[in-house]
């Protein structure tokens, strides 16, 4: 710059030289200012994204809450694939989520077999990609398991059920410390199975996680058959990140839970090894009626009875057993019904689940119209009651935790 000024001003008088100096200096300052603005703009790109996510917090009126949208709902809409994870042993666990790509193709060897050709489309889709066991993570919070955790609450949910998650955070799923024992809460999700609104649902979910930091999400579609994937992914995640969690409660997002009663039960069962307790079903038979949601063809399961398993509405298990369940799960083929699959894992480990009357995964009584299903004194004695809408849940929570006077607490714990 000094050389240019020297050439320009060599034959000018002092006044002209001063004008040239001023113009060139001004141009240099403007260039420097422009460069600074560009650099700052590239650093702060996150701010407009956060504003966009805030603008989308209220879902559009045409949201579709249905979770099953045909055969595509079982896997990713474009490439239903994943990379296989190496077998994990108790002594050789990963220290981070080690699945970072999706590269799995359909098992077309099945297509030419007669038994396969006779199956319904959804079971064909399930079997073609059953070997695709693990998918990358979209949202992860390993810090949830830092330090000593007495109880980790884990809830299965889907993207559109924001109101259910919100009520749980305000009631029984609230993170707290009770008598020096820490409670942490996580929600398990896949990707929205609504192809049209998937991008909007994802942005809403990311903003929700930005606020609360309690969502684990994987890159597979949320669907009925993929609930088993949600089970295996949590087992792997827990084995990877949670060395010091004493107990795990795992349940659905439409249940009433008494954490006080959980603590009371755990204190009485502290010496029980391989504890797995819930509403256990013994000698359940596979359903063969095709119109039933839980229908299973003989080609997938030809035994008379399922192994004992707990209803998925909610169950308790100790941390060391969860890690062993992950090891067992990797030895089995995936099964369409997640509750039964976990029972199969327990069978591999030769662990018999404990049936407890305080776990009600079909309501307090099976007659939905019964007034007993709305009796707060009965809820006060339970650990889990299934099938409550968010409004019913918060109403019952407020009643149970008010100055409620009951004639006698049921002796079920």
UniProtKB/TrEMBL annotation:
InterPro entries: Glyco_trans_31 (IPR002659). GO terms for biological process: keratan sulfate proteoglycan biosynthetic process; poly-N-acetyllactosamine biosynthetic process; protein O-linked glycosylation. The keyword Cell membrane does not apply. Residues 76-87 have a biased composition (Low complexity). GO terms for molecular function: hexosyltransferase activity; UDP-glycosyltransferase activity. Signal peptide: none annotated. It is found in: Golgi apparatus membrane. It is a single-pass type II membrane protein. Residues 75-96 are annotated as: Disordered. GO terms for cellular component: Golgi membrane. Its EC number is 2.4.1.-. The keyword Flavoprotein does not apply. It comes from the Eukaryota. Keywords: Glycosyltransferase, Golgi apparatus, Membrane, Signal-anchor, Transferase, Transmembrane, Transmembrane helix. Gene3D superfamilies: 3.90.550.50. Belongs to the glycosyltransferase 31 family. This is Hexosyltransferase.
């Amino acid at each position: 710059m000094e050389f240019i000024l020297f050439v320009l001003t060599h034959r000018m008088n002092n006044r002209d030289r001063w004008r040239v100096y001023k113009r060139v200096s001004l141009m240099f300052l403007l260039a420097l200012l422009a460069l600074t603005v560009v650099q700052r703009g590239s650093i702060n790109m996150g701010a407009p994204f956060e504003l966009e996510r805030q603008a989308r917090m209220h879902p559009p009126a045409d949201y579709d809450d249905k979770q099953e949208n045909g055969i595509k709902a079982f896997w990713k809409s474009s490439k239903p694939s994943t990379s296989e994870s190496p077998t994990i042993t108790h002594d050789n666990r990963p220290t981070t989520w080690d699945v970072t790509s999706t590269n799995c193709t359909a098992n077309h060897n099945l297509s030419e077999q007669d038994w396969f050709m006779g199956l319904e489309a959804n079971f064909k889709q399930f079997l073609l990609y059953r070997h695709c066991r693990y998918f990358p993570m979209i949202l992860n919070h390993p810090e949830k398991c830092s330090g000593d955790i007495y109880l980790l609450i884990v809830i299965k949910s889907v993207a559109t059920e924001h109101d259910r998650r919100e009520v749980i955070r305000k009631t029984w799923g609230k993170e707290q410390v009770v008598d020096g024992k820490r409670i942490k809460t996580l929600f398990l999700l896949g990707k929205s199975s609504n192809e049209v609104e998937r991008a909007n649902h994802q942005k809403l979910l990311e903003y929700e996680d930005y606020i609360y930091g309690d969502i684990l999400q994987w890159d597979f579609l949320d669907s009925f058959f993929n609930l088993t994937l949600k089970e295996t992914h949590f087992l792997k995640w827990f084995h990877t990140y949670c060395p010091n969690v004493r107990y795990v409660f795992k349940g659905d997002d439409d249940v009433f839970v008494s954490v006080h009663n959980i603590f009371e039960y755990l204190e009485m069962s502290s010496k029980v090894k391989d504890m797995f307790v819930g509403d256990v079903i013994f000698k359940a038979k596979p359903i063969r009626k095709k119109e039933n949601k839980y229908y299973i063809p003989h080609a997938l399961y030809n035994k008379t009875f399922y192994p004992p398993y707990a209803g998925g509405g909610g169950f308790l298990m100790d941390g060391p057993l969860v890690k062993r369940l992950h090891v067992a799960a990797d030895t089995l083929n995936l099964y369409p019904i997640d509750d039964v699959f976990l029972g199969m894992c327990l069978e591999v480990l030769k662990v018999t689940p404990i049936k407890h009357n305080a776990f009600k995964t079909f309501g307090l009584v099976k007659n939905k119209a019964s007034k007993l299903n709305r009796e707060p004194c009965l809820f006060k004695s339970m650990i889990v009651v299934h099938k409550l809408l968010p409004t019913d849940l918060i109403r019952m929570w407020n009643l149970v935790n008010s100055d409620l006077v009951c004639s006698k607490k049921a002796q079920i714990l």
